Request: fold
Amino acid sequence: MCEANAYMVKDGKEELLMEAVDLIEPEDNNSGYRIMSIFGEQKIIKGRIKSMNLVSHKILFEKTV
Amino acid sequence: MCEANAYMVKDGKEELLMEAVDLIEPEDNNSGYRIMSIFGEQKIIKGRIKSMNLVSHKILFEKTV
Reply:
């Protein structure tokens, strides 16, 4: 399976937000993203995408300044 | 491998931007994203992420209004 783990980068550290993320969609007001795992878990992430590395299964978010 | 195909959604149609995308990073000025394939091909995509579905290997971009 090709889901990825999502992290919030804070002070240079990666805090796990959710494992096995399948879906990522921007929120309507552009304040962040809705992410959903293959298990159906959902979270709203306030911030922006910092980087995604699909082969490494890694999605990094960061707070918007 | 878990790379995905990137598409631009225009008038409801999906136009292929790049196959086998591995890396996605926002441009410094937030005008869009830099995407890179596992083959090292790079493109700058003007627009925003519309949705990503990792299990389906699909990244959709759309022009910002």
Strands of chain A lie at 4-10, 13-26, 32-37, 42-46, 48-53, 58-62.
